[in-house]
Amino acid sequence: MAATTETVSLPYVQAPETSESLDWADLVTLDLAKFDQPGGKQELAEEFSRSIEEVGFFYLKNHGLSKEDIDTQFAIGKSVLSLTDEEKLPFRAALEAGDYNGWKPAGTRDLIPGVKDNFEIYNIPKFIPEHANRPHPEIVKEYIETIERFSKHIHEQIVKKLLVIFSIALGLDDEEWFLKKHRYEKTSGDHLRYMKYYKRTEEENEKLGGVWLKGHSDMGSLTLLFRQPVAALQVLAKDGTWKWVRPQTDAITVNIADALQFLTNGYLKSSIHRVVAPPKDQAHIDRLGVLYMVRIEDDTELLPIEESPVLRERGLLGQETLSSDGRPVTAGEWVKQRIIKNLANTSTDKGDNEETEVEIFKGVKVKYYD
Ligand SMILES: O=C(O)CCC(=O)C(=O)O
Ligand SMILES: [Fe+2]
């Protein structure tokens, strides 16, 4: 059977932004252009430290990717995800085995009894020999060099700078502390993600209380979200209220995830966020996203960083999270179990929207928020 979308159509036209006035989160913007200026890294580390006092979300500008680079990824994502389910099936991710590379169909999870999740994903792992023989749909193969360039730019020019900023913010003598645990050639689940939420009817939204993906934290080190004009992402603010994350045209939205929270005993907060029904003027749009997930090397033990004076001064050392067998959780185990428990089929009758806590690995749990 021929592919329904055999070409990537450019220029990609983004959906118009909402004209509704929403309660937007006030987030710090880090300017990566400062990184190579004298004193710039230190300045960025100070700004970053201030930003995390609020929520674990911030914007990043001057990241070196053009609007065209990003739109090309949206166009590729659109083509891949609009293949038929039959065409995507050979590339289905082995979610049940803890592997999310490839295709996650919509509807693997029950949100409430009778209503399933409405998002599908195509994940492309980092470009290392371990993944070289992965099969992909033709459209991905055709654009694989563009995808590889985009993906490697993110790691080399964006993620690496952020990892240096984090080391400085934690007062570590070794500016490369985090870099040494995020080596590109090593095994870890870094990947580029195309993600699409299908629009829902008013009736369905009512049943779900508007919640499409319940308040959660992400499983790795960082999540990077590219320009997302369809408002739906919300972050849990310090005062306990949900604020909308404003789509930015020129900036990437970044959030901190579980591994960094474990390594800093909560000084870097794995931010709680959720996805809700978009405002009325965007309710008719299928919401396409391009994301990049940063993961720490699989064999890293997720213990607070002893060498950090910032953690020591705050009394954050010596109370690590251990699993029930008294061992530290490793990053690879954590990610694998979270994929099985949070992305593969729902294992409870009540559905994800009713869950408040799920055991991920030997007594260590994640919480979900209303
Ligand atoms: O779609 C978004 O804006 C965020 C998605 C998300 O939170 C996730 O995939 O973990
Ligand atoms: Fe998330």
UniProtKB/TrEMBL annotation:
Record-linked Pfam families: 2OG-FeII_Oxy, DIOX_N
PROSITE patterns, A to Z: FE2OG_OXY
GO molecular function, one term: metal ion binding
Keyword terms, alphabetized: Iron, Metal-binding, Oxidoreductase
Domain named Fe2OG dioxygenase: residues: 188-298
Listed SUPFAM superfamilies: Clavaminate synthase-like
Biological process according to GO: small molecule biosynthetic process
Protein name: Fe2OG dioxygenase domain-containing protein
Family statement drawn from the similarity comment of this UniProt entry: Belongs to the iron/ascorbate-dependent oxidoreductase family.
Top-level taxon: Eukaryota
